[in-house]
Structures are given as structure tokens and as C-alpha cells.
Amino acid sequence: MVKRADSGAMSTVKAAAPRWARRRAGWWEGDARGRPAWTRERFLAALAVLTAGLLAFHRVVPNSVGRLGSSLEVFLPWLGLVVVVLLGLALLFRSATALVALLLPVAVWTHLFGGLLLPVAEPGAHDLVVVQHNVSDENTDPVGTARALADAEPDLIALEELVPPALPVYEKTLAPDYPYHAVRGTVGLWSKHPLTDARLLDIKPQGIAEAWSRGLRTVVHTPHGEIAAYVAHLPSVRVRASGLASSWRDESAGLLGKAIAAEKLKTVILLGDLNSTVDDRGLAPLTSRMNVAERGFAFSFPAAFPLARIDQVMARSATVGHIRTLPATGSDHLPVAARITWG
User: Fold this and answer.
1) With 0-12 CB in 10 A as exposed, 13-18 as middle and 19+ as buried, what is 186?
2) Quick one: which of 88, 115, 100, 102 has its CA closest to 52?
3) What is the radius of gyration, based on Cα positions, of the chain?
4) CA 181, CA 164: separation in Å to the nearest integer?
5) Cα distance between residue 187 and residue 160, in whole Å
6) What DSSP designation does 89 have?
């Protein structure tokens, strides 16, 4: 009698369970009637396929709403972490279906970014070592910053956010090892090799009314030939409730791309804070014309916890073989160093 009473009570409790809870259980694990259900295996497999789709077809994600496509592309390499999490869940639930599905995003991620992890090639006879750094207009230690960059012994040092009080400090500190330099507005280039034909590069978007000079073009006379060197600082991207605001950055990138396309010298290098990654379609006017780093991730911003490389080194008729970060300075960016090979 007690058992029947308990059984009846349990049946009453089961019948009293909310309908949404019973539906949810059926959605996840199926029901006694054998109707189709989404199991953990299928759910994980679907997430794996979705991740692979975002990696492979990120250009299809529209930018019309909040620059969603560019937002995804800035952090595209980090989708590899999603794959790692899904792998852990697949192993936890012993899901063979999910493990097989994960081969797809692994293959796509490896195709896109696996080359950046390969060993660095041996230095070539015509290699040029360059350093790119946004030194920050709030940097309280320009002397230490300049010395840290010079310690890397590059041939060229490109700097952005050079403010008038700090500029003489950089000039004096770098002068012994870098006797040649050119500064236009808030960007500059220091060199071990002679510089000529330095001029301001107009990459100012139309919507900016105040004084704004963030582009420089000069010629570097290396022992192996002349190189046109461009230093640029594109407008910042703002995060708003409606999404990313990058129209000024995109416009400035277009102007810079046109200037490089019109450059008569064969070999060109571009160093700058471009305020986005090379995967972002907003930088297509540049990445479609120039080679980007073949090795290294070199996440440079923010310095406290680097999530993306927005400090770039690109080249035309030359190879950017490897890019890496240097130790932190007084800036909110990390410096990046790259080896360029040509000839």
C-alpha cells in the first residue's frame, strides 16, 4: 500500500511538472516515444560546423549592422579557443560525432593561421630589421622607451603619437645609433641608412576638422637599393552601443592604399598603427596590395593583455618573414619587430 501511495505521489509530481520543462527534456534527450531529439553530440557537432563556417566564410558576415563582420575578423584567430573548448566537451561526453565534426574547424583554422606557427626561416643577405611602435602621447618614460627600441638593433624605427614635448627626447636618445630621421606631424622614422624625399602623406578623412597629420613617406637608401618607406597612424575605431565605428579608419586606409598604389619605387614597406588586424576587411585597400607577416602572431594591443595585432608591418616586392613583440614600454601598445627580405 505504501509503495502504491508513493508511486501515485511520484506520478502526481511528474504530471505537475511544467510543460516547458518536459518539452525541454524532450528537445535535449528525446522522449519515450522515440521522436527525434537534439542530443549533446548533435549540439556539439553543430557548434563545430558553425565555428568552421565563421572561419571559412567570415567575409560573408555583413558589416551593415554595427560593423559585425569587421568585429569578427579582428578576433578571428581566437576562434581557435572555441575549438579547444568544444574538444574538451566532446571528450567529456565521449562524443565520437562531435570529435569527427571538430576536424572541420581544425582544418580551416590551420589553413588560415597554422603557417604563423611554423619555424622562422634563416636570415637572408638583404634582410632589413624594422621596429614599429605607437609610443603613446601619455608615455611618461620616452627615454626608456627609446632605449628599449634601440636595444633591438633594428635598421628602422617607426613611431606614432609623437607629441611636441617628447619629440626632442626621442631625437636625442636615438641620435647616436640612428643619425637619420624624418618626422611629419605625429609620426616619424629613424634610420641607420640615409633618408631623402621625406614628405607629409595626406591620409586625413574628410570628417576630421582639426589639425591632423599622421602620414609620412620617405626613401631609405640601403646598401642593397632604395626602399619607399611609409609610416602611418590610422584613425581609432570606437566601440559604441550600435557596434564599431570605423568609417574614418576605413576612409584613411583607402587614401593610404591609393598613395602606395601610385608609388613609383618598386619596393615599399609600410609601418604603422593601423588600428585593426590584417584579417579585417577595412584594411583591404592595403592588404590587397601588400604582403603581410608570414610568421608570428605578435598581438600588440592592449599592452596589459594583448588581444590583437593592430601595429603592422607590410611590404610590396618584399617579404615580411617574421613579426614578434618586444618587451613592454611606457605605452599602451607593445612594440613589434619584423624582418623584411627582398632582392
Assistant:
1) buried
2) 102
3) 27
4) 16
5) 4
6) H
Residue 135's nearest CA partner among 106, 101, 98, 161 is 161
Parallel, antiparallel or unpaired: strands 238-240 and 311-316: unpaired
The amino acid at 173: T
The tens digit of pLDDT for each residue in 94-144 reads 999 999 999 999 999 999 999 999 998 777 767 999 999 999 999 999 999
The CA–CA distances, whole Å, from 132 to 17, 190, 209, 216, 253 equal 63, 11, 27, 14, 18
Helix/strand/coil (H/E/C) assignment for every residue in 89-123: HHHHCCCHHHHHHHHHHHHHHHHHHHHHHCCCCCC
Under 8 Å between Cβ of 189 and 215: no
The band of 64, judged by pLDDT with boundaries at 50, 70 and 90, is confident
Backbone angles phi, psi at 20, to 5 degrees: -65, -35
Cis peptide before 119 (omega within 30 of 0): no
> What is the rounded CA–CA span in Å between residue 314 and residue 263?
15
Q: Which residue has the cell 614597406?
A: 269
C-alpha cell at 105: 574547424
CA distance 197 to 126: 23
Q: How far, in Å, CA of 336 to CA of 324, rounded?
A: 5
Can you state the angle between helices 79-92 and 40-56, rounded to 10 degrees? 160
Are 193 and 179 in contact, with CB atoms under 8 Å apart?
A: no
DSSP characters over 288-318: TTSB--SS-----BSTTS--B--EEEEEESS
